[in-house]
Structures are given as structure tokens and as C-alpha cells.
Specification:
By secondary structure, the protein is an alpha+beta fold. It is 30% helix and 24% strand. The strands form 2 sheets. The protein has a 4-stranded antiparallel beta sheet with strand order 1-2-3-4, sandwiched between helices. The chain has a 3-stranded antiparallel beta sheet with strand order 5-7-6, with helices on both faces. 33% of the residues are buried. The N terminus is likely disordered.
Length: 184
């Protein structure tokens, strides 16, 4: 994508809307090449309005799939362009406590290395705090240097590197004090 966008300070997190389907599908296709699911748990044939309604249900904890927790799904937008997405889990289950953490994020390949991931994570920490999460677990693949730097830039303190298992690669596990993050 050859769009020039503004600085990370102009980035804002917001829910997906009715007009976002084309950009979101494009982002989903791009990130699928990295093995990342941009449109989290979207099923084949599901209408866009139904998907948006399901994301809202997940945010408030209604009709959650087995093993899921309430979560807030937001896209990161800069100058009208979706550059990434973030998922903020309001609490942890056993899987999230070991592998996924409270916050998962992805930046579209054409928008990486511009500070967007750091700003997305910083803003999401404020949102997590608003959901009552004061100590936030964020994980990344052990070999993902860029994501590790993003987490450390947001105050992440490395707890340990958990060995890979059950088909998952080794994970760097960081804790961040959400109370120490300045409001957006």
C-alpha cells in the first residue's frame, strides 16, 4: 500500500464501523501472509453487520464462545487509513495467562517501523485500565525483536521467556503497570 500517513501521534483507536469492510478485508489478507488473523474469529459467509454485532457482544461478554473472555477489538487509524488492530482482553483465562496475554496487536506490513505499534499499545493500556486491568500481561514470540521493543517502550518488564509448546513458539512474557501510563 503506497499511502503516506501522519505521525504516530495522529493515531487513534476506534471500533470497526460499517464503512470499514473493504480496508479491514485488505488488512486481513495482508496479515494472513504473516499467520496473523486481523479480523479475529470472522467466519466464512458471516455478514459484516453480524460480525460487528458479535464484536460488540464480545466486548460486553454476551454469547462468548467456549474459552473466550470479554474483549475490546479496535482498529488503529491514521488519516482515515486502518494501519493495524488491537484486542484488549478484560481478564485472563488459562490460555491467555500462558500464551496470549491481555493485549494482542498487529500492524499492517506497509505501516510498520513508524511507531504505530508503540502508540497502539500505549493507548490500549489506558483502555485496559478503564476495564479494571491494572497489571497487564503482553506477550510476543521470543524472536520478534520489533514487538519486544514495542512492549519495552511501553514500560514492559520481562518476566521470562516461556518455552514453546502445543504448536506455539517460545513467548516473551512482559508485565506492564497500566496505572503508570499517561491518559490518551
Amino acid at each position: 500500500m503506497g499511502v503516506t500517513t501522519g505521525s504516530s501521534s495522529s493515531l487513534r483507536l476506534r471500533p470497526l464501523g460499517a464503512a470499514d469492510e473493504p480496508q479491514a478485508r485488505e488488512a486481513h489478507t495482508e496479515l494472513a501472509l504473516d499467520g496473523f488473523e486481523f479480523l479475529l474469529d470472522r467466519t466464512v459467509g458471516e455478514s459484516w453487520p453480524a460480525y460487528l454485532a458479535r464484536l460488540e457482544d464480545q466486548r460486553v461478554g454476551v454469547d462468548l464462545p467456549e474459552g473466550w473472555v470479554p474483549s475490546t477489538f479496535l482498529v488503529a487509524e491514521v488519516d482515515g487509513v486502518i494501519v493495524g488492530r488491537i484486542s484488549i482482553r478484560h481478564l485472563l483465562n488459562a490460555y491467555l495467562a500462558e500464551v496470549g496475554g491481555h493485549i494482542g496487536y498487529g500492524v499492517r506490513p506497509g505501516f510498520r517501523r513508524r511507531g504505530y505499534a508503540t502508540e497502539m499499545l500505549r493507548q490500549s493500556l489506558v483502555i485496559a485500565r478503564g476495564e479494571g486491568v491494572e497489571r497487564v500481561l503482553v506477550t510476543c514470540d521470543a524472536d520478534n525483536v520489533g514487538s519486544a521493543q514495542t512492549i519495552e517502550n511501553c514500560g514492559g518488564e520481562l518476566e521470562r521467556i516461556a518455552p514453546g509448546r502445543d504448536g506455539w513458539s517460545a513467548k516473551r512474557r512482559y508485565w506492564i503497570d497500566a496505572l503508570a501510563v499517561a491518559p490518551v
